[in-house]
Task: inverse folding
């Protein structure tokens, strides 16, 4: 059974339906009855439907009104283009192909544009059908302006929705939790009960899958990139704090305690900057505290008794936590401060900080201009489906042929299974709606006042019930809406309902054909492939990073490391896009509802953990190699570094294939060295160990197994 809508969803749908209905009526009735301009009335009716139902822009009333206002010029341009290209079927088809691809593919540049794409496509669809009447363009544009103005006023004044919590507010709340946890870890005794669980819950709340679509910072600009990185670093920060609370308590050392207090202060500062939407001035004090911590930890005379391994691991873990806090602070500053200098941080980690905005958008577009990108696949599927529908409707000279394209637009899904499910429900709903509409048209005849009285309540019911109950209800009720609307514009008979059925069946057939032929499995197969490519690209980065940190052939690895880093960053972005769509698609697993993910698939492969592997590899590549000369490692330590790197790299390569039995990740512990080894060497080995242990844990999670470490042994 499908999931029943919650009370909040029902109330939200009702408020939205009231706004759209009032806006559509405010434009339609004056144009049809006072001005006697049927063309203007049609466009005044469909403009609120396009932006309010077909493209339900998320956010508060003012935010939605602003989005509609910015999309208004594009709607006018598309209406003009459709009117001009309606001169011939093939010109209209070519225009539909171009418009469909450009709008769908360009949606990756920002969440607001993505939300308005279906509505913008509708303006071209309405205008590109015969009759070719360029003289009616002023009336069409008047209708677009009238409907848009009505919707703007209704969004602001009629049942305005409260603003959703912004992503930056959610990051700030999570940083507050992290700050309290860091302060509690500085106190003596065991950590607070349930602290690790609260931290992990707060981290999960920052996943994009937990945010409203319009609140996700998925744009290509500097602000969205910085907020996305701040969210990712915050999730890593709380996970690291949770891991620290779950380890055996180590003897407290002043350096770690001081750095944890500095981390708590940094979290509070970043949270305050997020809430004020204004960065702090100058470098964060925690950066100087990290430098002091490294000097105290790595310095000291050679020959003193080595610190216990447990203390070294705790210090290294605290350092990774502080590094994550610095990353958050810098990303927040970049989000609100433009091209702010990146103090003391690897520039590669914030490569977008000094990149011009136009270049950032070009990178996003060119990076997805590949057949392996689900964004490119969706754009091609949508463009081909709409163009084919326009060709069929024009070649068969279907009356009200734009309904064919509207069906493709509303029923198209990213998988063949989901498309068939939507088409099946839509056909049933359309048939039922056509029967009801036919009876209404036969009974009311040419009594226009009957249709005028029924249009508003029908719109209110259709726009409230349809989005909640699925394609069957949506198509059936919308059939009644268009029948009562067109009956007021021109004389109609029961054959109008018949035309509606024919057009919907034609559009359903075209949509289903495209769903079967064009990437029918959606993001499921592409997600696995992109995760495989990501892990294979990340594996060489592990070796290059360890080599750079230990001084094991640094000169020979520099060029290779740079190329591997760029490739890993690119494949991480592709994998993130595939995973984002994968989480929204219905499962083919029997018994799983359309809004859920296949539990067997999720149990076998945790793709989010694979993304964490790629992200953690990059973070280690940025931070592990010191800016000064690497220390000289004893032969035993160098052999261990090479061996454990081989083990980690081999595990990543094996995990890239996602074998059915999973991957058993076992890393050799570092050797026990004599007191003659400089503290800096011991600290470096521990940093490598902690980094690779975290990678091993993510690898074990992504393939359904837990990583394991053998008991620590003594080596010379």
Result:
């Amino acid at each position: 059974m499908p999931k029943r809508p919650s009370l909040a969803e029902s109330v939200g749908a009702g408020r939205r339906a009231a706004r759209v209905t009032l806006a559509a009526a405010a434009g339609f009735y004056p144009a049809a009855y006072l001005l006697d301009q049927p063309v203007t009335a049609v466009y005044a009716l469909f403009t609120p439907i396009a932006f309010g139902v077909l493209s339900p822009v998320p956010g508060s009333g003012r935010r939605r009104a602003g989005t509609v206002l910015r999309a208004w010029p594009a709607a006018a341009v598309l209406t003009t283009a459709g009117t001009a290209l309606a001169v011939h079927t093939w010109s209209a088809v070519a225009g539909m192909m171009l418009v469909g691809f450009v709008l769908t593919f360009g949606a990756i540049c920002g969440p607001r544009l993505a939300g308005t794409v279906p509505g913008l496509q509708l303006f071209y669809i309405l205008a590109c059908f015969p009759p070719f009447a360029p003289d009616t363009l002023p009336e069409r544009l008047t209708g677009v302006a009238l409907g848009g103005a009505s919707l703007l006023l209704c969004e602001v004044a009629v049942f305005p929705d409260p603003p959703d919590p912004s992503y930056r507010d959610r990051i700030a709340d999570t940083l507050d939790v992290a700050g309290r946890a860091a302060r509690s870890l500085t106190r003596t005794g065991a950590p607070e009960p349930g602290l690790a669980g609260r931290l992990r819950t707060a981290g999960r709340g920052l996943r994009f899958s937990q945010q409203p679509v319009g609140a996700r910072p998925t744009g290509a600009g500097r602000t969205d990139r910085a907020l996305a990185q701040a969210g990712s670093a915050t999730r890593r920060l709380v996970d690291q704090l949770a891991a620290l609370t779950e380890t055996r308590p180590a003897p407290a050392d002043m350096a770690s305690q001081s750095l944890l207090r500095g981390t708590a202060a940094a979290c509070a500062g970043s949270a305050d900057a997020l809430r004020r939407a204004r960065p702090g001035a100058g470098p964060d004090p925690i950066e100087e505290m990290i430098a002091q911590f490294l000097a105290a930890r790595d310095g000291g005379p050679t020959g003193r008794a080595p610190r216990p391994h447990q203390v070294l691991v705790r210090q290294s873990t605290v350092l990774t936590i502080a590094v994550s806090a610095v990353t958050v602070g810098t990303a927040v500053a970049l989000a609100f401060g433009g091209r702010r200098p990146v103090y003391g941080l690897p520039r590669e980690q914030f490569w977008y900080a000094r990149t011009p905005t136009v270049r950032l958008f070009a990178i996003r577009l060119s990076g997805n201009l590949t057949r392996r990108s689900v964004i490119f696949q969706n754009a091609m599927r949508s463009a081909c489906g709409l163009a084919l529908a326009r060709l069929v409707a024009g070649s068969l000279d279907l009356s009200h042929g734009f309904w064919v394209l509207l069906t493709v637009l509303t029923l198209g899904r990213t998988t063949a299974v989901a498309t068939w499910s939507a088409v099946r429900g839509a056909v049933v709903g359309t048939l039922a709606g056509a029967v009801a509409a036919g009876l209404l048209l036969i009974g009311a005849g040419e009594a226009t006042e009957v249709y005028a009285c029924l249009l508003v309540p029908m719109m209110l019911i259709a726009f409230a019930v349809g989005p909640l109950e699925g394609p069957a209800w949506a198509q059936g009720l919308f059939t009644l809406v268009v029948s009562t609307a067109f009956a007021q514009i021109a004389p109609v008979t029961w054959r109008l309902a018949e035309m509606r059925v024919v057009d919907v069946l034609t559009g359903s057939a075209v949509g289903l054909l495209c769903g079967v032929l064009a990437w029918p499995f959606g993001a499921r197969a592409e997600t696995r492939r992109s995760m495989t490519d990501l892990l294979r690209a990340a594996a060489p980065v592990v070796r290059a990073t360890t080599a750079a940190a230990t001084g094991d052939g640094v000169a020979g690895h520099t060029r290779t490391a740079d190329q591997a880093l760029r490739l890993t960053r690119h494949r991480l972005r592709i994998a993130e896009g595939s995973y984002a769509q994968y989480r929204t698609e219905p499962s083919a697993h029997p018994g799983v509802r359309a809004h859920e993910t296949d539990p067997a698939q999720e149990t076998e492969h945790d793709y989010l953990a694979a993304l964490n592997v790629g992200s953690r590899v990059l973070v280690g590549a940025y931070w592990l190699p010191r800016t000064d000369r690497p220390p000289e490692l004893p032969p035993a330590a160098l052999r261990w570094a090479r061996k454990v790197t081989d083990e980690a790299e081999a595990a990543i390569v094996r995990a890239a294939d996602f074998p059915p039995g999973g991957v058993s990740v076992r890393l050799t512990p570092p050797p026990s060295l004599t007191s003659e080894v400089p503290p800096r060497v011991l600290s470096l080995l521990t940093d490598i160990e902690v980094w690779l242990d975290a990678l091993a844990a993510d690898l074990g999670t992504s393939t359904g197994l837990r990583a394991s470490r053998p008991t620590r042994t003594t080596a010379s």
